[in-house]
Every structure is written in C-alpha cells, then in structure tokens.
Amino acid sequence: MTANTHKEGIHQKLTAPQNRKCIVCRSVKPRSQLLRIATHVGAEPLIDWIGTQQGRGCYVCHLRPCLNKLVAAPLMVERHLKAKVDLQSTSDLKKQIQNVLEKEFSETHASVEA
Ligand SMILES: [Zn+2]
C-alpha cells in the first residue's frame, strides 16, 4: 500500500504551473499572457515583469479591458493577495498599470497630463 492516492494527480492538474487565473475576468490563461502583480510582506505591490518576485502574487490579463478594470478597482489586488495594501501603495500600483496602458496600448497621444 502506498500513501499516494490518485487524488494528488487531480490536484496537480488543477494547479498546472503554466496557467493562471486573471483576477479581473477570471479566465485561465498561460502565464505569458498575464501580468503578475506581487507583493512582499509589508511592501507595496508591484508589477512583477520577470515573474520571480517573492511573495504573494496574482495575475491580470495583459489586455486593455482587464487592466482598465484593475485601475478602477485596485483593491481587488488586496483581496486576492490577502494582504493589506495602504492607499499610497494602491495609487502607486495604479500608476504602474496606467503606464502599461499608455505605453503598450496607446493609440493616441491626445491627453498628456503633467
Ligand atoms: Zn482578464
């Protein structure tokens, strides 16, 4: 008799390392199509470009609609990371996401804010 049951195999399937769930639209996608947002304990959440930042992480689609929604409701990150994020950090994260939106999804340069 072994201690392992087939249940472990099922568990591994559900947590396949390549796929992550977007916290905004909840669709499951390959990691390469998602942005990781990570936070250290007691540190501000950051976009984790290389995907190796330590600490809790959550994912959002690298797509304009999902990023827009996250900018509108950045506290989603706090809920998913199960970490307290202070207001300053929340607005910093918002800025980072807005930067991504501007750099990667900008179609016009109509509005430039000082
Ligand atoms: Zn999404």
Fold blueprint:
Blueprint: H1 6-14, E1 19-21, E2 28-30, E3 34-39, E4 46-47, E5 56-61, H2 64-72, H3 75-81, H4 87-105
Antiparallel strand pairs: 1-2, 3-4, 3-5
Helix pairs in contact: 2-4
Structural class: alpha+beta
Q: In the CATH hierarchy, what is the superfamily?
A: YlxR-like
Uncertain residue segments: none
Order of helices and strands: HEEEEEHHH
Q: Give the fraction of residues assigned to helices.
A: 25-40%
Mean pLDDT: 79
Assess the beta-strand content as a share of residues. 15-25%
- CATH architecture name: 2-Layer Sandwich
In brief, what are we looking at here?
The chain is of the alpha+beta class. It has helices at residues 6-14, 64-72, 75-81, 87-105, and strands at 19-21, 28-30, 34-39, 46-47, 56-61.
Q: Can you put this structure into words, describing what you see?
A:
The chain has 114 residues and is of the alpha+beta class. It has one domain: YlxR-like (Hypothetical Cytosolic Protein, Chain: A, 2-Layer Sandwich). 39% of the residues lie in helices and 18% in strands. The protein has four helices and five strands, in the order αβββββααα. The protein has a three-stranded antiparallel β-sheet with strand order 4-3-5, with helices on one face. A two-stranded antiparallel ribbon has the order 1-2. A hairpin with a 6-residue loop joins β3 (34-39) and β4 (46-47). α2 (64-72) packs antiparallel against α4. The longest helix is centred in the C-terminal third of the chain and has 19 residues, at 87-105. The mean pLDDT is 79.
